[in-house]
Amino acid sequence: MNKIKIAELFYSIQGEGRFMGVPSIFLRTYGCNFKCAGFGMPKGEVSKEADNIAEKVHRYSNYNELPLVSTGCDSYASWHPSFKDLSPMLTVDAIADRMEEILPYNKWGDVHLVITGGEPLLGWQRAYPELLNHPKLKDLKDITFETNGTQTITQEFKRFLKEWTYKNGFHSLTFSVSPKLSVSGERKEDAIKPEVINQYADIGHTYLKFVVASEEDVKEALQIIGKYKDEGFHGHSYFMPVGGVESVYNLNNRRVAELAMKHGVRYSDRLQVPLFKNEWGT
Ligand code: SF4
Questions:
Q1: Mutation pick for ligand 1 pocket among 75, 190, 240 (CB with most ligand atoms within 8 Å)
Q2: How would residue 133 be classed by pLDDT, with cut points 50, 70 and 90?
Q3: pTM for this structure?
Q4: Which one of 69, 73, 82, 202 is least enclosed by Cβ atoms within 10 Å?
């Protein structure tokens, strides 16, 4: 049986993108190909918050005890090597059992599954077919992969997803792609991959979600949207305010909403911040 290294598995409300407000199970896999240490930092500088917490990792026995950060990646423990022991390697059976336990009335009903990270389309692709075919997931209708848009899908997984989507005629598959702008600290040539997005768009509903804070970020996002369009992608785009903690989110949300209106781009909130303070497990 396949196993997946799980950073978090919890039930909450989707706070971002197309399914904002929809009750959702979040499966956060461990591992990412980026660090995004530039978020919330002056241009050219990198956040040390995650590394500073990592030095005291012995103080923490589970995710809910970990501090929130106001700079860098807000889900740092899902990829930072120092926190790897907080993420158990679980069998597909154990994951399906846990999902059933935390679902309201132990049923999927209208609950959506979000497979997130870290970067969920790294090596775990090989385990997802067994999970999605598990008897305890048979009534699941909607899945979203939240990805940074850099990982291609294997031919085998692509075939599986196409079949899964058409099975019973009602399954929906979404790729919520968050391409990293220079504000993340990642290099454009590593982060912007139109050919990868086109591959997702070929098999599921695919949209772009840019984390922005300023006019400068918006200008860069618009250029990148133009590049994706030139390469044949015509899905929707969203602007979402930077801010994994309330103090930063509150500074940005209204301005980003106004910028989205100004440019005719969709606005995505991050409801987990005002509703639940973006605590781990929300
Ligand atoms: S891609 Fe996402 S999970 Fe990975 S470091 Fe960046 S913000 Fe964090």
A1: 75
A2: very high
A3: 0.94
A4: 202
